[in-house]
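User: Last request for today: this protein with iron/sulfur cluster, please.
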Amino acid sequence: MAVPISQMWTVASYVLGKRIKGNKRYPLVLMLEPLFRCNLACAGCGKVQYPPHVLKKVLSPEECFAAVEECGVPMVAIPGGEPLLHPQIVEIVNGLIARKKYIYMCTNALELSRRLHEFTPSKYLTFSVHLDGLREHHDFAVCREGTYDIAIEGIKAAVARGFRVTTNATFFDGTDPNSVRAFFDEVMSMGVEGVVLSPGYSYDKAPDQNRFMGRARVRRLFRAILSNRKKTWKFNMSPLFLEFLMGKRSYECTPWGSPAYNIFGWQKPCYLLQDGYAESFKELMETTEWESYGAASGNPKCANCMVSCGYEPTAVIDGFGSLSGFWAMVRATFSMYKDQGALKLLDEPVANGHAPLVQLESNAREETHA
Ligand code: SF4
Ligand code: SF4
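Assistant: Here's the final one, the structure of the complex with iron/sulfur cluster:
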């Protein structure tokens, strides 16, 4: 596992503290979306299709700090939109570091090299660079040629300056597992701390609705990708969540584990669905009908979801919440998952090879380039 010991200790003691107090539902990571605007318009994105007046809005630093303090999480992910387009992002990041929160700032890195000098390396700050695979696959996924090379330049510059850097990838139907494995080799050779990955969620708003996978396809893909691992590969996420993706364990969703806060308020029930908003974290926890979500609920919107924001908290709580879970996590950290059947999957032709690159235009892109 690539996560530093100090961060693991912070999360482990937080989970144990909640268990000792008998808390049944508690958050681990705040998904803080300070804006929805982006300088890309990826086909699988469910965020940048808002109308221009929404895309212009941002959360203030004070709103961000109040949300973090109210929910009390040890970790904050800053997705978006593209956080580097927020005019006060440096102030937000510095304020969160001062509060000793572990921050994962998700960025497509188009602006990263140019903006790096404004940030200070810290164990609390990680740039989590959106990279969906090798050059051709990434440029296809984000619907613009040339983005891979710019992101790589940003990653190298950030690593050279001493920042913590991870990559985060979302995979859809038609992904070639061999290409993903080659991608792991490439990014690890750049000195990144680890890779973060997740299957995509079938957002209603996403322009391309044909690339989402059902659960069986997700398991098959991740079994092919993650079995027979190389020692050099590092993953900046729970090894038990990776086992879940590979079909080696079943978990239920913990939607309150990664609550989402954005310009509309606290999103019900999770980062992916929008079944209303609460004005406070307390209201979110008390008024959301949690039993209506997750695969076991029968909710069709959750039926195919295996996304990290819902299922990684379950894996983290499992790993740090009991001795047996901790032992499973240690074993999973060091396992290479030798699997002959998975090797055969790598020889199969890719079912849904992607079409030539389509460059999508959107209000968001036009606006951020204005
Ligand atoms: S980089 Fe792509 S997925 Fe991320 S917010 Fe921008 S458009 Fe959406
Ligand atoms: S299963 Fe997925 S979509 Fe449903 S509540 Fe959990 S994270 Fe959200």
